[in-house]
């Protein structure tokens, strides 16, 4: 039976400003949902609120995994429930190698099936290969000195290793050249299965050529204004967002201030 | 009655003279001690607003020392056998204030021409070498009040000599355990002849006593020689530590300092790397993990005398509870030190609102065509880094711990002993959870899997633009 994450009439914001004004979505494992929308529509706020970033405050509504509310859980416990966030701007952690970090995370999220160091290393190398990253990144310090594209690929490697039930990928495609975009898409497609639900947050349509969503939702001013199938993404590609009521581009005020 | 008499002993010229004679020291050493005592008495008390600011109460003076001179060994302290735990191979000494144990294979060093011995043996067998060292004394007693005090009173010491061209891959080791409140004064001399390479790795632990440890370390790095000196200071949180260290580097000579400060109630450390020959270089990596009410007053200087010399200093401090640190560094580039390159960085992470840290870099440049960079920062752990790690399933406290471990990893990863790196990780783990004392049992569940590639990655850790660096 499929697992389900449900976002119910979510109102949330940052620093006293309400950004999400009643978002409702339902994602089952096995599905890919694209969340699109112009700048400032609340896409990243949705991602951070789902994961429980301390700066983002939930005003009302609920987020449930298989009917169980997760809004009072800290981010690590949401991760244990199977939620994953791929960061738009992954953080650098000097002195902690990618491989060590990921093994610790893996063992934290899968307490019942801890993996031996050697087996883990082998698995990690396979995942690196899918996104075209050199295995030497395993011993590099986490994201430190990685290029923008390498950071995004490393997020997909983490996703592939941790195999969450629900992956929220926040603009994993932004800042990538076409080759990197294909590799990142290969990585995402490699984890696609009946056991994972993907929410692909993107500003552009181009990643949807490689990762095919069954559902497309357009977020405008903190609300899902339009939902549809893959044909909606094509319509957006040709016509932009302006045909949707109220979807004129806004200044990027709600974009996350997480990058440093 | 006997004890009453003992307390009347004064540390004066006569005391120093009698001590030197009782140890059959050469007359030049006796004279050196007497002159050092004069310097100590003449040099003014150290004045620093930092001391007041950080209340670095050393409480080291002659009346205090006189009272402590005849202290007994702490009955609860560890035995040599317990202290030696974990050192399985290599050339090492294990020592307390009352006993010394040498590993059997130290004899093998003779055939290589390497000298590795304690003060007693140095005076007995290597008096000429010692004499040569004292003629060019890297830390002259009149240069620093506490170095002068140490020079008058040192009763313990280690002599290391690497002959011309010798490359010794295994680090020499000394593990010392302070087992008495009796003041401990030691000097360490490393003399590396032309083209030689070697390392000395030292550790200081101690019983839960109000001890006093004063350690002076000198490295004489001749042309093309390379010396690595590492020290882990983990005395009890009631012990006062005084340290003076200096390296004199000849042409293309290279000194590496790896220093970890974990113990002590207060430590006052003075370090200088001096480049007297063209192309000399230094790498100085210091890490501090303070907790409780610990105080660290650290100074590390680079003195560029000759051309094309290169110095690198990185001091990363983590301060918990009400601990405090000051890191002060001075880059001095003399008028003849053209094309020199200096980098000095002091960074601190504060884990509590009561913890404090200051980093004060300084520059004194008397010539053009040089590159000198310094950076300093004091911050809390970035909440976004914590969030990032938490999203991968790590609890908040674990996330913080890993960020902090990563922050001091540049120092720890350069310790040439897996067992000691494990001990340090266990030690940090213990300090993190507010536990005290010598960590005897190394946890088999190591935090960091060994990553040889990560350790040797050629990336220059000094010039990263990361916010803590």
Q: How does this structure look, described?
A:
The complex is a heterodimer of chains A (260) and B (469). Chain A has 260 residues and is an alpha/beta fold. Chain A has a domain at 4-90 and 165-239: 3-Layer(aba) Sandwich (Rossmann fold), CATH 3.40.50.300. Helices cover 31% and strands 28% of the residues of chain A. Chain A has helices at residues 43-51, 75-80, 98-109, 117-130, 148-162, 178-191, 230-239, and strands at residues 4-14, 17-28, 32-36, 56-65, 68-69, 83-86, 93-97, 141-142, 166-170, 197-202, 215-220, 223-228. In chain A, the strands form three sheets. A six-stranded mixed β-sheet of chain A has the order 6-9-10-3-11-12, sandwiched between helices. In chain A, strands 2-1-4-5 form a four-stranded antiparallel β-sheet. In chain A, helix 5 runs parallel beside helix 6 (178-191). With 469 residues, chain B is an alpha/beta fold. Chain B has one domain (2-456). Chain B is built from 14 helices and 19 strands. Chain B has helices at residues 2-7, 13-22, 27-42, 49-54, 62-68, 80-83, 108-112, 119-125, 127-135, 145-153, 383-390, 396-412, 418-432, 452-456, and strands at 91-96, 100-102, 115-118, 156-162, 172-178, 184-192, 197-206, 212-221, 226-234, 240-249, 254-261, 266-275, 281-290, 295-304, 310-319, 324-333, 341-350, 356-365, 371-379. In chain B, strands 2-1-5-7-9-11-13-15-17-19 form a ten-stranded mixed β-sheet, covered by helices on one side. Chain B has a nine-stranded mixed β-sheet with strand order 3-4-6-8-10-12-14-16-18. In chain B, helix 11 (383-390) packs across helix 12. Residues 437-459 and 464-469 of chain B have low confidence and may be disordered. The chains are: A alpha/beta (260), B alpha/beta (469). Chain A binds chain B through residues 51, 53-55, 74-76, 78-80, 84-85, 87, 90-97, 99-105, 108-109, 117, 136, 139-142, 144-145, 158, 162, 258, 260, and chain B through 382-385, 387-396, 398-399, 402-403, 405-410, 448-449, 451, 453-454, 457, 459, 464, 466-469.
């Amino acid at each position: 039976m499929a697992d389900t994450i449900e976002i119910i009439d979510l109102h949330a914001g940052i620093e006293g400003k309400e950004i999400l004004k009643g978002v409702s979505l339902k994602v089952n494992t096995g599905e890919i949902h694209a969340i699109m929308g112009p700048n400032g529509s609340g896409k990243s706020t949705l991602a951070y609120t789902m994961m429980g970033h301390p700066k983002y405050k939930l005003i009302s509504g609920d987020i449930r995994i298989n009917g169980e509310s997760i809004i009072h859980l800290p981010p690590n416990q949401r991760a244990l429930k199977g939620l994953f966030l791929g960061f738009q701007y992954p953080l650098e952690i000097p002195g902690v190698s990618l491989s060590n970090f990921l093994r610790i995370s893996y063992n934290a999220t899968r307490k019942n099936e801890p993996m031996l160091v050697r087996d883990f290393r082998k698995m990690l190398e396979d995942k690196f290969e899918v996104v075209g990253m050199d295995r030497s990144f395993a011993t590099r310090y986490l994201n430190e000195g990685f290029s923008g594209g390498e950071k995004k690929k490393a997020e997909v490697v983490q996703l592939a290793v941790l195999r969450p039930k629900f992956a929220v990928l926040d603009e994993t495609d932004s800042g990538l050249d076409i080759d990197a975009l294909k590799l990142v898409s290969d990585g995402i497609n490699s984890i696609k299965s009946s056991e994972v639900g993907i929410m692909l947050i993107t500003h552009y349509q181009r990643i949807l050529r490689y990762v095919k969503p069954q559902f497309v939702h357009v977020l405008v001013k903190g609300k899902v204004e339009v939902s549809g199938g893959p044909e909606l993404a094509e319509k957006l590609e040709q016509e932009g967002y302006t045909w949707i009521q109220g979807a004129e581009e806004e200044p990027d005020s709600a974009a996350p201030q997480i990058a440093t | 009655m006997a004890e009453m008499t003992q307390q009347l002993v004064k540390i004066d010229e006569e005391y120093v003279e009698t001590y030197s004679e009782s140890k059959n020291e050469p007359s030049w050493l006796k004279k050196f001690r007497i002159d050092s005592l004069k310097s100590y008495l003449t040099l003014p008390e150290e004045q620093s607003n930092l001391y007041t600011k950080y209340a670095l109460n050393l409480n080291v003076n002659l009346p205090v020392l006189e009272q402590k001179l005849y202290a007994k060994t702490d009955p609860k302290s560890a035995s040599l056998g317990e202290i030696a735990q974990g050192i399985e191979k290599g050339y090492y000494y294990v020592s307390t204030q009352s006993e010394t144990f040498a590993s059997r294979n130290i004899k093998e060093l003779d055939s290589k021409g390497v000298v590795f011995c304690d003060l007693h043996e140095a005076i007995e067998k290597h008096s000429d070498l010692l004499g040569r060292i004292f003629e060019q004394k890297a830390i002259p007693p009149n240069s620093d009040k506490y170095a002068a005090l140490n020079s008058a009173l040192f009763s313990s010491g280690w002599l290391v000599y690497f002959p011309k061209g010798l490359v010794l891959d295994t680090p020499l080791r000394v593990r010392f355990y302070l087992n008495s409140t009796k003041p401990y004064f030691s000097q360490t001399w490393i003399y590396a002849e032309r083209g030689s390479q070697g390392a000395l790795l030292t550790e200081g632990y101690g019983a839960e006593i109000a001890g006093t440890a004063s350690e002076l370390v000198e490295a004489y790095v001749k042309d093309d020689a390379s010396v690595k000196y590492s020290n882990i200071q983990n005395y009890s949180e009631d012990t006062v530590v005084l340290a003076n260290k200096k390296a004199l580097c000849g042409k293309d000579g290279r000194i590496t300092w790896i220093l970890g400060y974990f113990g002590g109630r207060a430590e006052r450390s003075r370090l200088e790397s001096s480049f007297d020959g063209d192309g000399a270089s230094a790498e100085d990596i210091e890490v501090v993990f303070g907790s409780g009410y610990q105080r660290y007053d650290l100074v590390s200087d680079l003195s560029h005398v000759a051309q094309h010399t290169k110095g690198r200093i990185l001091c990363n401090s983590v301060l918990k509870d009400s601990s405090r640190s000051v890191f002060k560094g001075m880059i001095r580039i003399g008028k003849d030190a053209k094309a020199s390159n200096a980098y000095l960085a002091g960074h601190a992470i504060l884990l509590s609102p009561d913890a404090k840290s200051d980093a004060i870099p300084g520059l004194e440049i008397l010539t053009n065509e040089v590159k000198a960079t310094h950076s300093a920062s004091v911050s809390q752990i970035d909440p976004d880094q914590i969030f990032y790690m938490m999203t991968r399933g790590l609890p908040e406290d674990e996330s913080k711990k890993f960020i902090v471990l990563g922050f001091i990893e540049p120092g720890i990863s350069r310790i040439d002993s897996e067992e000691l790196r494990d001990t340090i990780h266990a030690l940090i783990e213990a300090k993190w959870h507010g536990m005290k004392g010598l960590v005897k049992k190394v946890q088999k569940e190591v935090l960091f899997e060994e990553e040889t590639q990560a350790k040797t990655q050629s990336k220059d850790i000094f010039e990263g633009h990361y916010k803590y660096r």
